[in-house]
Amino acid sequence: MNLLRGWLFYIVLSFSILVLAVCVLCTTPFASVKWRYEAICRPWAKFVLALLRVICGIRLEMKGMENLPPADTQAVVLMKHQSAWDPFWLGAYLPAPACFIYKRSINWIPVLGWVVCAMDMLAIDRSKGRSAFEAFMKKGPVKLREGFWISLFPEGTRVPPGERVRYKTGGARFACQSGTPIVPVCHNAGHCWPKNSIAKQPGTITVSVGPVIETKGRDPHEVTAEVEKWIEDELERIDA
């Protein structure tokens, strides 16, 4: 049954992506990125989360939402990365539009890649190593000034429940260099939306937003350690 629900979810999701693409691409010539985000992408992200609830029985519980800064401030969001569910929550519930870092090769994926490219996110070529990070450090502050929150997954890859990897310092390095506060976000979506699985498990995903972490004048490794400790400790609490 969970596999059947998963297939039904992906079928509806696929059609919704086609509608999303038409709306985004058709409005690109005359509407700003922020307008398209708020008018098209945010409602779509909320629609996807509603699909999960209706089709797959996956509900959402949110804690610590009062820790989110106002939308007119700058922030870097560092989020636990357990499944492909994560970006939908960020797109739906962050007060400001989320700006993601992604592999430039995604631009070549039909339909979805075109949408991501049209939304002017931070595309990087990971094969270029340090120069890719330097490109992010150059364009990231521009997106902050435009009113976007830079959103990253410090683990660097989806990590299934029960496993743990060392957090990367890239997000903290950017935040420290730009003096931008960090918002840590923890969740346990991997139980309901497992990595590389079509089947979806009914249940409740708990999202917890932590207190803002100041970065100005601090060492990125120290900040990364603080982010990792809060997220992993909070994961133990919400999974208990």
Automatic annotation (TrEMBL):
<keyword id="KW-0012">Acyltransferase</keyword>
<comment type="pathway">
    <text>Lipid metabolism.</text>
</comment>
<feature type="domain" description="Phospholipid/glycerol acyltransferase">
    <location>
        <begin position="75"/>
        <end position="190"/>
    </location>
</feature>
<dbReference type="GO" id="GO:0006654">
    <property type="term" value="P:phosphatidic acid biosynthetic process"/>
</dbReference>
<keyword id="KW-0472">Membrane</keyword>
<keyword id="KW-0812">Transmembrane</keyword>
<protein>
    <submittedName>
        <fullName>1-acylglycerol-3-phosphate O-acyltransferase</fullName>
    </submittedName>
</protein>
<keyword id="KW-0808">Transferase</keyword>
<dbReference type="Pfam" id="PF01553">
    <property type="entry name" value="Acyltransferase"/>
</dbReference>
<dbReference type="InterPro" id="IPR002123">
    <property type="entry name" value="Plipid/glycerol_acylTrfase"/>
</dbReference>
<feature type="transmembrane region" description="Helical">
    <location>
        <begin position="6"/>
        <end position="31"/>
    </location>
</feature>
<dbReference type="GO" id="GO:0003841">
    <property type="term" value="F:1-acylglycerol-3-phosphate O-acyltransferase activity"/>
</dbReference>
<keyword id="KW-1133">Transmembrane helix</keyword>
